Amino acid sequence: MKKKRNERGGDAENSYLCVAADVKLGRDVKLSKFVNLYGCEIGDETKIGAFVEVQKNARIGRRCKISSHTFICEGVTIEDNVFIGHGVTFINDTYPRATSAGGALQTEADWRVEPTVVKSGASVGSGATILSKLTIGKNAIVGAGSTVTKDVPENAIIAGSPAKILRYLAGDNRTETTVNSAGE
Questions:
Q1: How far apart are CA 132 and CA 30, in angstroms?
Q2: Could you give the number of structural domains in the chain?
Q3: Structural domain contains residue 123
């Protein structure tokens, strides 16, 4: 029995995927159903959960795990070996508006993408919101439900809204070093 094919040439069982022709998928990428990808790049062996959207000009590195219900907008770069929890939202505009000063609906010409970078080995907990124009450092951990409003140092563990540094990971990335209540 011949399998039914969809418009991208895949099995009918993958018809719940929306993967545009301009998406660059690495080797052995795993996509759950109800994924929306367009104009982005996904590295080798990365796993994308259900109900995830990755917009154009976003890049996800190798061996990442992007959990369900996450939104990765244009201008976001996620390096290798990064964990993104469920329902994480990235933002790429500090002052979003629906209309221009003249009252017309905004177009791409009315704003500029503000980039965000998540460095290799970092983990972002479920429900976090990551504002634009910032970097989450290598091996940093962002607590669930946090609102990240400024750069996160390498190996820092942060949480809260706005997120503050709680402590740092020591050299093996598993031993923690505490900081004082001022975040120092």
A1: 27
A2: 1
A3: yes
Residue 99 belongs to some domain of the structure: no
Separation CA 179–CA 171 (nearest Å): 16
> Model confidence over 76-135: pLDDT tens digits?
999 999 999 999 999 999 999 999 889 999 998 888 999 999 999 999 999 999 999 999
**Residue-number span of the structural domain to which 78 is assigned:** 13-94+113-178
Q: Would you say residue 131 lies in a domain?
A: yes
Residue 60 belongs to some domain of the structure: yes
CATH value at residue 88: 2.160.10.10
Nearest alpha-carbon partner for 164 in 131, 144, 142: 142
CA atoms within 13 A on the CB side of 2: 3
**Residue 180 or 95, more confident:** 95
Does the pTM exceed 0.90? no
Cβ neighbours around 21 below 10 Å, total: 8
Task: Give the model's confidence band at 178: pLDDT under 50 very low, under 70 low, under 90 confident, else very high.
Answer: low
The two tokens of residue 108 are 């791409």
Report pLDDT for 108: 86
